[in-house]
Amino acid sequence: MANGDNARRVRLRDRYEIAVDEPLPNFDNPPAVAHKVRHVRDDRRDLIGLICDPKMPTRFDLISPLSRIDAPYFMNIRDWGIVDWPPEGRRCPVFIFDRPDGERLLSSLDASFEPMREETIVDQFVHPVYQILRDFRDQDITHRAIRPTNIFRGGSEQGRFTLGECVTAAPAIAQPFIFEPIESCLCMAAGRGPGSLLDDTYAIGVTILTLLTGQVPCQGMSDEEMLEAKLSKGSYAALAQQARITLTVMEALRGLLNDDPQERWTLEDLGMWANGRRGSPIQ
Question: Which of 2, 15, 109, 221 could serve as a FRET partner for 48 with CA atoms 20 to 30 Å apart?
């Protein structure tokens, strides 16, 4: 447990000092808010703390399996606890992370950026996320928060992206509608649950399309309009619309965005495609 230090610093296990007056909004992952953290015995460590909403459930069940994962492209937990948090006037869960090397890929779903080349997407995003999800599969857990607003540029090696955390809120509760399969779109956000890795591969497909086009698909559409489009056209056609997509990427997107979970690409399919295997696009 943790004890309050003073109005400006909150201590966690006499090991970390969380700066109440030094928020880091660029690293917020709503509903969790980020603050600067100092390691009491090692000032060289660049750390952040994500303060969770005490009224919402967190994924404490992932703490143990995630402790057995050490992926270089994943924002994994370094420590955690419960603190007396002055801004809330109550006790709140807090998770400590290494500060990501780069900036968030997208600051909001409405933002846009320079579209990326296919080779860059495969090298900087697909390969790292494939390695991370292999570790998740081995621990029988899911991420459920894969989206461009939870990805950071310039990972620890060769400029590869770093995938953000997935423990500070209930699974998929903050996941934007567009990144969820149809069956999950029909649920209340709080009831989506941990799902399966097929939900994560669907989110990977939407993220690849976002990186390819420089913006999140279906800009300006309401959740109801997105769902109607997915149901009437199928996810691939509804999301890709008029985007110019090569046959190579089309193969991956049709597989990852397949609305039938039994036919959707698995992690093995994604890995084979990323490593050069090519097939015929799924109709």
Answer: 109
